[in-house]
Amino acid sequence: MAAGSPLSYSSYRTYLECPLRWRFLYVEKRKEAPRGYFTFGRVVHSVLEELVRPYVVPTGRRRGSSEAQTTLHDWGAPAAGAPTPTPRTLSPEDLLAFYDRSWSSEGYTSPEEEARYKALGKNLLLGYRELLERRPPTPVGVEEHLEARWDGIPIHGYIDRIDRTPGGGLEVLDYKTSRELSHEDARESDQLALYQVLVEANYREPVERLTLYHLRSLTPLGTPPRAKTALETLHVRLGEVADGIREEAFEPTPGRPCARCEFQSLCPEFRPVPPPEEERLGALVDRFDQLRAEERRLGEEMARTAEELHRAAEELGLHRVRGSRAVALRRREISWQYPLERLRPILEDSGVATSTHPSSPEEVRRLLRDSSLPAEVRRRVAETGSRRVRWYWELEPGSRGSD
User: Fold this and answer.
1) Among 111, 189, 193, 267, which has the minimal tally of Cβ within 10 Å of its Cβ?
2) What is the architecture of the domain spanning 9-260?
């Protein structure tokens, strides 16, 4: 995957977790070790696609990012007035036969683990099929591959299901085979937010609902579509990922995912020390650890000593104290704080808020020196400030015999 190629949700998440792992997967095209739960999810999704596709009633949508609409005729939908055909759904026997044909043993750690997963898949697929017969869905797309440019960032994704809502809008559904899932997961899902952008860029109708579908409990966890501010936040993060890829910023990011990473032997975080250097570098690490502990201890002791000296000097009215080898000079640092929430009404009343937006005490101080502002406004701004004084000590060489 080259810089400038469309970002999928999985590639975006991979880069956020570890840019170096992203390079191994998308630039060097290294293969991940197969894992049973990934294989299981892939098989279940393929069977669900086969199960739900007969229910699909296609709808017109944009071609790519253009405004041209695909017609119902282009989709091969029934002509106007023609009766809607009854979906020919898979029977339980056909469903299980397709499941057996689709099954893969790749990645399971034992025959027992594989058997448990296969039985789980059989139960949840039969349960889901029964639910579809009782409450037939209204999908307009299944396993739909969509692409778009989101304010300059190319994105794409395969969306499990897009349904028509009773209000005429669209619902985006993503199936999940994980053990646990909550409404909070749905509300915080960047994947659903990205799919919302893709669907709204390709379909005429708005997205009215986002849903993670928990297959183990046959529970849809739906949320409203993301607000503009949430989408803007995601766009910023996507932009940072795209920028990092363009700049080839592929530094490793150690963390919890390292435990399951198959590229540890290639990663500098896990590169072993050459045997001839082990003793020397090990001793340096021990010394560094010892000095860091000493640094913490000395820092705490210095803070206590400085505070005790400050209290005594303040009580006696001193600013200069001699020792046997140095002179301690009591210095002060003055700063000003301005509550921005109190500044805004003053600036708005004066009519300068549109051109002046101070965001730090330094900017406010510059504003107070701006002779183009009325003196009354500057006076009101100054009165919102509070003066802070921080005392500290400096040392200079000295002796008891010196003046």
Assistant:
1) 111
2) Alpha-Beta Complex (3.90)
pTM: 0.69
Domain ranges across the chain = 9-260
Q: Are the CB atoms for 387 and 344 separated by under 8 Å?
A: no
β-sheet bridge partners, residue 392:
331
Q: How many CB atoms lie within 10 A of CB 384?
A: 16
Amino acid making up residue 376: E
Take residue 314 and report the two structure tokens written for it: 């303040």
pLDDT digits (tens, 9 = 90+) for 79-118: 445 555 566 778 999 999 999 999 999 999 999 999 999 9
